[in-house]
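Could you help me review a protein record that somebody else here produced? This is what I was given.
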Amino acid sequence: MAKVAEAMLRDIKKDTIDFGPNYDDSMKEPLVLPTAFPFLLVNGASGIAVGMATNMAPHNLIEVCNAINASIENRDITSEELLECIQGPDFPQGGIIYGRKGIKDAFLTGRGKITVRARYTVEEIRPEKEAIIVTELPYMVNKATLIIKIADLVRDKRVDGISDIRDESDRNGMRIVIELKRNVSPKVTMNLLFNHTALQSNFNVNNLALVNGMPKLCTLKDMLDSFIEHRFDVITRRTKFDLKKAKEREHILEGLKIALDNIDEVIQIIKSSSNVNIARANLMARFSFSEEQSQAILDMRLQKLTSLETQKIIDELIEIRELIAYLEGLLADDKKILDVIKEETTELSEKYGDERRTEILNEEINGMIMEDLIEKEDVVVLISNRGFIKRVPLTAYKEQARGGKGSNSTVLKDDDYVEHIFIANTHDKIMFVTTLGKAYWLKVYEIPEGTRGSRGKHLKTIFEFLPDEDITTTVQIDEFSEDTYLFMATEKAVVKRVSTYAFRNAKTRGIAAIILDEGDKLIKAELTTGDDDVMLFTRNGKGLRFHEESVRAMGRQTHGVRGIKLSDDDDILVGVSIKKENEQIFMLSEYGFGKRTEFDDFNPHGRGTQGQKAYNVTDKTGKLISAITVNDTDSLVCMTSQGKTIKLSLANVSILGRNALGVKIVNVAEDDSLVGVARAENDKVDPEEGAETAAEIIKNDDSDEPTLFDE
């Protein structure tokens, strides 16, 4: 048996526990072990009986022993105070426990859910290729079964991004290697594995135990008190047993001492007796010995008559009398017995205790949220005039030189064209404001993912739109706050400012954002801080700069106020730009001309005025279609009504004055026109990539198979 088993069986022959018949009444067996080792807490237990089940977690021996001693020192100690001694379960396989709520529930109530995750690290095995190294598993998780499960998930394509998995475990420890494909996020892959495999497991504590023969749901204090009570009983019975044996030995030694003091007479009595029985009786009659003392004298060997052996008997008698005094004092004082329990528990801790293996983090896991399973990446979101939406990874578009023709970005049916395009991160929130002035929002990852050749999914399958309701503008929102605002502008130049906090409950059912006049529609919405300068741009090239405070914050159910005065009947508002540090305004015309202009080239004017010339509109350039805020490090994604897309760096677009014509951005076909432009951070673009034709896109596109959302 293991050495620690000695501590569980210690003193079993000293009448410390009761014995009872075994299952067939053929022998006696201990009803409970006299263990000095707190087995139930340290080792844990799991089992099912008739209508009852137990599931106890293992704990660290040193911590449990410290808690036992703390309970002895303070018999009124609370479970909360015991939490300072025992951090929580300590599983032999290691792993990481997330959160302390389940531990606290288990210790205070007897039941609790403890979330355990595998321990892993990420190693770079080749350039741009990483591997996840799993070194510890949750309690009771079988390594071979786990590897098979992961392989099945990869085969069924439920977990993407894994290229290989192998077991490199040896005598030095566990090592499961999960090789990832290039540019795959280890965090997202692990979150998927946590969600689908036993790499994250819940240990549901149910501390049901038999206490005095009755099942009881035990708290930590209950279990420690029961153990101390058990040890008190064992040590009391052991002390009584030792005291009885000591007194029996004292009785014998007293007889031997008397005999040695009168050795000549004792020898004479024995020699004169005809047999052993007569000798025993004569000794009992002469010296008032008991039968046991007389027998011990008769059994004494002649070597005991030496002076050295005689002294040993005298010394042993002194020692045994001291032991008797100690044992009697122990039985007379409960505190002394508790001190013995403390002493033996400390000795056990020092002899068999080891360091904690399971790490406990304060971070709680309140169920896996979808963001944990979605990799953060920039995507292009496309919305067509007929309401089809999709997202495509930004990496699907290669950067081109200024003046290129662009590449096919979507396949549209007759009479449909791309109406909205923007760049967003998969974890961003996107708010949609419709022609009816209602606001909706969702996470970007909830938008159906498509390929460049897919059509997407209709918005009415996502939002609860009315029959005549369509998306008119979108805006990216990090958090809904009373300190940020949604600045809205309509085609008829009506503007309005509303706190984003007012839209926190919009979601897919939608809530009112602005009350629109008949024939008007929302064309743009931007986020502001409450202290921004705003520029409004019209189709005929006029621009007006004013401070947003001139538009007071309103409630959702309001119309708004005039932003810029439209000079011509055919003029409408086409763009809204917010002044930001080190950024410029990019303006784009319908025939592919564009320019960058410094914000400070425009003078502030009063709200509701005509402003000043911002873009030189001619027959060559066509009308102004969009104006956005950009900086030198940005790239642009431009989209035509027929779905052509071009991505280019703003470094190729000159900064020009207010009256300048601009430069050619996109070659637009005669039957086509630009409908929108979006900005992308340049660090998400590969500047080494050259122009790519539509034929090359089709040839190089590795996503020919339709996705779940393709139509």
The chain has a mean pLDDT of 83. Residues 119-198 form a domain with the Gyrase A; domain 2 fold (CATH 3.30.1360.40). The first strand starts at residue 19 and ends at 21. The first helix runs from residue 3 to 9.
